[in-house]
Design brief:
Blueprint: H1 11-18, H2 23-30, H3 35-42, E1 47-52, H4 53-57, H5 65-70, E2 72-78, H6 84-94, E3 102-106, H7 110-119, E4 127-131, H8 138-150, E5 155-162, E6 178-185, H9 189-195, E7 201-208, E8 225-231, H10 235-243, E9 250-255, H11 263-276, E10 282-290, H12 299-303, H13 309-314, E11 319-324, E12 332-337, E13 355-359, E14 365-368, E15 386-388, H14 396-407, E16 414-416, H15 424-434, E17 442-444, H16 451-464, E18 470-472, H17 480-490, E19 498-500, H18 508-518, E20 526-528, H19 535-546, E21 554-556, H20 567-576, E22 582-584, H21 591-604, H22 637-648, E23 656-658, H23 665-678, E24 684-686, H24 694-704, E25 712-714, H25 722-732, E26 740-742, H26 749-760, E27 768-770, H27 778-789, E28 796-798, H28 805-816, E29 824-826, H29 834-844, E30 852-854, H30 861-874, E31 882-884, H31 896-902, H32 907-911, H33 925-939, E32 945-947, H34 954-965, E33 973-975, H35 982-993, E34 1001-1003, H36 1025-1036, E35 1044-1046, H37 1054-1063, E36 1072-1074, H38 1081-1092, E37 1100-1102, H39 1109-1122, E38 1128-1130, H40 1138-1150, E39 1156-1158, H41 1166-1176, ...
Helix pairs in contact: 7-8, 14-15, 15-16, 16-17, 17-18, 18-19, 19-20, 20-21, 21-22, 22-23, 23-24, 24-25, 25-26, 26-27, 27-28, 28-29, 29-30, 33-34, 34-35, 36-37, 37-38, 38-39, 39-40, 40-41, 41-42
InterPro entries: F-box-like_dom_sf, F-box_dom, Leu-rich_rpt, LRR_dom_sf, RanGap
GO cellular component, one term: perinuclear region of cytoplasm
Organism: Adineta steineri
Length: 1232
């Protein structure tokens, strides 16, 4: 055979191919194909390797030393070693890498950094990346600087380096061309460029401008590319910055949120770029802007300056302005260049939220769900054909933006605005867009606040719009006036076919307007006026019109206070209407007389297809248009049923009849039986909940001897006993038409079950039998066993709540071993425990046809689940696809999506689950199954964020989660709130997280953990106390990636706080710490602040309600005086008075980072607020201050007003509603 073509390629070309492969593929896969490839791989010396040093040292993932030393040019390392010896061992190995050019150090500590670069004399690096989670010390910088002086390194990325010109000197011989750091001060920028004369590219994450002056030495900077994240530079600062870099040709700016306070500032900034930055070859920016409801915004006006010839033609810098239509982002607008640059603070990055925007290139709006980072010039105009904006919190101002986007839209055909906050003004904006729209065919405005005025605006659109086919305005407070506007418009409109106005305030007058419209409108087909108040007169007026209208097919008058005898008019007209297919009158008190009139109509109307509908009770905001004639719950009694039955003797089209809950009794059943004797069209009859007993059952069964069309019979919730079941069994021996029988909620007992079982042995048509709640015990189960042993036609049987218990299940299970027909078995609520589950499990190993087994509401426990899944694993056919162990609904009207969700417990997952093992078998079955699925996802690294609150997984579920966490390398957020995991569950989770390096957020709120149980992990509302905190601290010390820690309401005192402080002493990742509602006190706050004084990552601390008083506040103030990272501090409810607030005021004179301070419900009076206000006059960083519920008085308010005159940085100042009657102009001040 000829040699492979690949092996005939030159070695150099193969090595070039290897350049695009990862090291594992090259070394483990390609190398093992054949000897020749093995030899070629051994000659390849350009490997790019990723290495966990702990696994390398412990040989868990063995890489030969000679490969590392001689063949690796690029190395990315994770410093997860547990001991200093391991780190030193790896450093020694690293120093022997002869070909290494590119080195990345992740999670490396200061000590290892110093040790590495003090010894690194022979490594000739080209690029170095240091990605640690803490700010390096000056000593560490000196060690790296010394290495830079000796090496020819050209690229350095140091994520958390905070450059301090007075303490950090770059080496004179440094040849760096590319530098990326975390922090740099504006006044030190020039000094940095002066020390790095060869620098061409500079990237900085945070660029501080606290000191407005910049020392400008005389030098010639080579900088060509500058990139700033978290940019807060004013135009003056930016101008000064650019002057230092005459060769600059590329600039990237990502502005800080709230940097621009008005559109005018954005316009001024644009003018500056156009006039003074025209020398740039490449310019990218991202500007977030938050607007208020009183600040009307048009995206096309915002983008207008960026459509200047300078932007589009001269520079070809294309800009996009868009808005994310999400509840919590809805007031934010983004202006950015394409290609998009990702802001580090951008929480929606990569998510698919509906966006509305406009591009500068052609000034065309778009509406899509494309993430910003995927927007290109080719894709920016993609617009969704179906736009679903339900529950988005949209207000009128947001509709203005949306309307502009829709005005020239030629793509969207369906718009759903259900459940927002749209009023008349917002409707007006929308209508302005629809006047000339030619594509939108379906509009849903249900659940808003349009009122009559909004309806008037919609009517204006209908006057000219020639595209809309379906319009829904349910639940909008529309009355007769609004109805009048709509109806006048329908005189002219020639396209609208469906109109839904249910759940409004329309009365008889509105119905009159509709009837006048229907006299001339020959387009409208479906009208829904359910849950209004049209009454008898309104129904009569519409009915008179329907006589002549040839197009209306469906009218819904459900719940409209229609009474007897007024339906006579409606039904009289129904007799002459030869087109109406659906009429819904349920819940209208039609009663017997009304039923008589209806009967006459049915007798003469030969078009109606259905006079029934499965009765539903749905919350108004979920209701949809009901499409059938419903006579359930209409109080017509036996006499009313008699009239209906008389009419059906002559009706030749009705196929379904539903007369549930009408108290028709045995006489009513006799009337229905008379119909079944002669009727040739009825296929389904439902007369549930009608007090029908054995006599009525007898009449029905006699009719079924003759009837050859009925396939479905629903007699649930009646009074049928064993005698009635006997009558039915006699019918089933000869009737081969009936397919579905529902006897749920009767009382047929064991004798009835025996009679039915006997008949079903020979019957060949019945496939579904429902005996739910019929008190069948072991005797009845034995009869069913005999029936199931035979080859009957029965495919589904419902034995829910029949009381068969374990002994009955044993008999049923034995039958399942041999049955080859049954596909679905419902055994809900039968007090089946572990023994019953074991019987079923044994039978499932042999059964080859059962697809669905429902055991919800039993007590099989986790052990029962274990038996069932083990049985499924051992079944060679594996026919069972649905095992229901907790609530799911099977109602026919249920949506497909909900059914799909309910059936997520498809057995293929559990059958093949790698996480299943013998456990302690504690916990809720539902939660247990959920835990199995979630654990499987975690184990396979299929998720980065898991939220399974209120699943009650118990300790057994926590065991699987913990076991899966051992193998996970992707999970960053884990919420396990309210799951009753207890002591054992905590132990399992803690064990799984012991060596985890990715998890950032762990939430374990409310898990029934007391102080003597909290040995491993515990967060919020668990009352673990100081003893629990002592145990918890030992775990926290080992978690290297924790960013958020919430210990609210855990009964933590001074001792527990001291333990916590000890645990956090070496933490370098924590950014949010919430300890509110404990009893930390002065002693505890002292322990905590000593440790936090060294922390360089915290941005938020919540210490509210902790009894710290003035003395504790002094300790916090000392911390604030020197801290440079904290942005948000909450000291509410801490008995802080005059001296405490003075300490804070003095601290804020020095602090230059804090932006939010909460002092709610303390003891600060007017004297305290006077001192505090004076202290804040020089502070230029604090933006939010809450002093509500303090006794500051009106004089204190005046001090705050005076503060605002001199301090221009405040965005929000809360003083509380106690002063809402104050006559000044300051109550909860918001600077918009």
């Amino acid at each position: 055979m000829e040699e492979s073509y690949l092996l005939n390629l030159p070695v150099e070309l193969l090595h070039h191919i290897f350049d695009f492969c990862d090291a594992q593929t090259i070394l483990c896969k390609i190398s093992g194909v054949c000897k020749k490839l093995h030899s070629i791989v051994n000659q390849y010396h350009r490997l790019h390797l990723k290495l966990d040093i702990h696994k390398y040292i412990t040989n868990e993932r063995s890489i030969p030393h000679h490969v590392l030393y001689n063949r690796v040019v690029s190395l990315t390392t994770w410093w997860t070693a547990r001991s200093e010896d391991q780190k030193e061992t790896f450093i020694s190995a690293l120093l022997q890498c002869k070909r290494l050019c590119h080195l990345t150090l992740r999670f490396i500590d200061d000590t290892s950094l110093q040790s590495l670069f003090i010894k690194a004399n022979n490594i000739k690096l080209v690029s170095l990346t240091i990605d640690s989670n803490h700010e390096p010390s000056n000593t560490t910088f000196e060690a790296v600087s010394l290495f830079l002086e000796k090496s020819s390194i050209q690229k350095l990325c140091w994520k958390n380096l905070r450059y301090k010109a007075e303490e950090m000197l770059w080496p004179k011989q440094c040849k760096l061309k590319f530098l990326s750091i975390g922090y740099c001060f504006y006044n030190q920028y020039a000094s940095l460029l002066h020390q790095l004369p060869y620098l061409e590219t500079f990237q900085v994450m945070n660029f501080f401008t606290y000191n407005n002056s910049m020392h400008v030495p005389s030098f010639n900077s080579q900088l060509t590319c500058l990139s700033i994240q978290y940019c807060s530079l004013s135009i003056e600062h930016l101008r000064s910055l650019v002057l230092q870099t005459p060769k600059l040709c590329e600039l990237k700016l990502t502005y800080y949120p709230d940097m621009f306070k008005s559109l005018m500032e954005i316009y001024e900034w644009e003018k500056f770029v156009r006039m003074e930055l025209s020398f740039l070859k490449k310019f990218q920016f991202f500007i977030p802007y938050k607007f208020s409801e009183n600040d009307p915004v048009r995206l096309d006006m915002i983008i207008a300056p960026f459509r200047d010839s300078f932007w589009l033609n001269e520079k070809r810098w294309f800009t996009v302005c868009d808005q994310t239509i999400e509840t919590y982002e809805i007031d934010k607008i983004s202006i950015f260049t394409i290609p998009f640059i990702k802001p580090v603070y951008h929480s929606n990055f990569g998510n698919r939220f509906v966006r509305c925007g406009i591009a500068s290139k052609d000034n065309i709006y778009y509406i899509n769900d494309q993430p910003e980072d995927e927007i290109t010039l080719d894709t920016v105009h993609h617009t969704l054909p179906v736009l679903n904006l339900t529950h988005k919190g949209l207000k009128d101002s947001h509709l203005q933006i949306l309307a502009h986007a829709l005005q020239n839209n030629q793509t969207t055909i369906e718009l759903n605005l259900f459940a927002n906050k749209i009023k008349a003004l917002g409707t007006q904006y929308l209508v302005e867009a629809l006047l000339n729209n030619t594509t939108l065919t379906k509009l849903n405005l249900d659940g808003n606040y349009m009122g009559d005025e909004g309806a008037k605006h919609i009517a204006d659109a209908l006057n000219t719009n020639q595209a809309l086919i379906t319009l829904s305005m349910a639940t909008n407070h529309i009355g007769d006036e609004g109805m009048s506007y709509i109806c006048k418009a329908l005189h002219k409109n020639i396209t609208l076919k469906e109109l839904d106005l249910h759940q409004n305030k329309i009365t008889n007058d509105g119905a009159i307007s509709l009837s006048e419209t229907l006299q001339n409108n020959n387009i409208l087909e479906k009208i829904n006026l359910a849950y209004n108040c049209i009454g008898d007169d309104g129904a009569r007026n519409v009915a008179i019109t329907l006589k002549k209208n040839p197009t209306v097919l469906m009218v819904n008058f459900n719940n409209n206070s229609i009474t007897v005898p007024e339906p006579k008019y409606l039904f009289d007209d129904l007799q002459q209407d030869m087109t109406l297919e659906e009429l819904d009158l349920h819940y209208n008190h039609i009663e017997v007389v009304g039923a008589k009139y209806l009967a006459d109509a049915l007798r003469k109307n030969i078009v109606i297809e259905s006079a029934s509908y499965y009765f539903r009770i749905i919350l108004w905001f979920f209701s949809q248009t009901l499409r059938t004639f419903n006579f359930c719950s209409s109080k017509i009694g036996s006499a009313g049923v008699h009239y209906i039955a008389e009419a059906l003797r002559y009706n030749t089209t009705l196929s379904k009849l539903k007369l549930d809950s009408n108290d028709s009794g045995d006489e009513g059943a006799k009337s229905i039986a008379d119909v079944l004797n002669t009727n040739k069209t009825l296929m389904a009859v439902s007369i549930a909940t009608n007090n029908i007993g054995d006599e009525g059952m007898s009449w029905l069964c006699k009719a079924l001897h003759k009837n050859i069309t009925l396939k479905e019979l629903d007699l649930r919730q009646n009074k049928i006993t064993a005698d009635g079941a006997k009558s039915l069994s006699q019918v089933l021996q000869n009737n081969n038409t009936l397919e579905k029988i529902n006897l749920a909620g009767n009382n047929i007992g064991d004798d009835g079950a025996r009679n039915l079982a006997t008949a079903l042995k020979t019957n060949t048509s019945v496939t579904i039998l429902n005996l739910n709640s019929n008190k069948i015990d072991i005797t009845g189960a034995q009869c069913l066993y005999d029936e199931l042993q035979n080859k009957t036609s029965l495919k589904k049987i419902n034995l829910e709540n029949t009381g068969i218990e374990d002994n009955g299940v044993k008999i049923i299970a034995e039958a399942l071993r041999h049955n080859t027909i049954l596909e679905e078995l419902n055994l809900r609520f039968n007090q089946i425990d572990i023994a019953g589950a074991k019987y079923l499990a044994d039978s499932l190993q042999e059964n080859t046809t059962l697809k669905t087994l429902d055991l919800f509401g039993n007590e099989i426990g986790a052990a029962g689940v274990y038996y069932l899944i083990e049985a499924l694993r051992n079944n060679p056919v594996q026919s069972l696809t649905e095992l229901i162990l907790y609530y799911t609904s099977n109602r026919e009207h249920e949506s497909k999506s909900r059914k799909s969700k309910a059936r997520e417990n498809v057995i293929s997952l559990l059958r093949n689950s790698a996480v299943f093992s013998q456990s302690d078998f504690e916990g809720d079955v539902c939660g247990y199954c959920e835990a199995l699925k979630i654990a499987e996802r975690i184990r396979k690294n299929l998720t980065s964020h898991e939220n399974f609150n209120k699943k009650y997984i118990g300790s057994a579920g926590a065991q699987y989660i913990g076991d899966a966490l051992r193998y996970n390398t992707s999970l960053t957020i884990l919420h396990v709130n309210i799951n009753e995991i207890g002591q054992n569950g905590l132990k399992y989770l803690a064990s799984g997280l012991k060596n985890n390096t990715t998890l950032r957020i762990l939430n374990l709120i409310n898990n029934i953990i007391s102080s003597n149980e909290a040995r491993d992990l515990c967060i919020q509302n668990n009352r673990i106390g100081d003893d629990g905190l002592t145990y918890l601290s030992s775990i926290l010390k080992d978690i290297k990636t924790l960013e958020t820690l919430i210990l609210s309401r855990v009964n933590m005192g001074p001792i527990g706080t001291e333990s916590l402080a000890s645990a956090l002493e070496n933490n370098t990742t924590l950014s949010i710490l919430r300890l509110n509602n404990n009893r930390i006190g002065v002693q505890g706050i002292q322990s905590l602040m000593i440790v936090l004084q060294r922390n360089k990552t915290l941005v938020e601390i919540d210490l509210s309600n902790n009894q710290i008083g003035n003395e504790g506040t002094q300790i916090v103030a000392d911390f604030l005086s020197t801290n440079t990272t904290l942005l948000k501090l909450n000291l509410g409810i801490n008995q802080i008075g005059l001296s405490g607030v003075k300490y804070l005021g003095d601290a804020l004179k020095k602090n230059t980072t804090l932006t939010s301070l909460y002092l709610r419900r303390n003891e600060i009076d007017q004297n305290g607020i006077e001192y505090f206000s004076q202290s804040l006059k020089g502070n230029q960083t604090l933006k939010q201050l809450d002093v509500s519920c303090n006794p500051i008085g009106y004089i204190g308010i005046e001090y705050l007003r005076d503060l605002l005159k001199s301090n221009t940085t405040f965005i929000e100042l809360k003083i509380g509603f106690k002063y809402e009657n104050y006559q000044g102009n300051l109550v909860n001040y918001t600077n918009s």
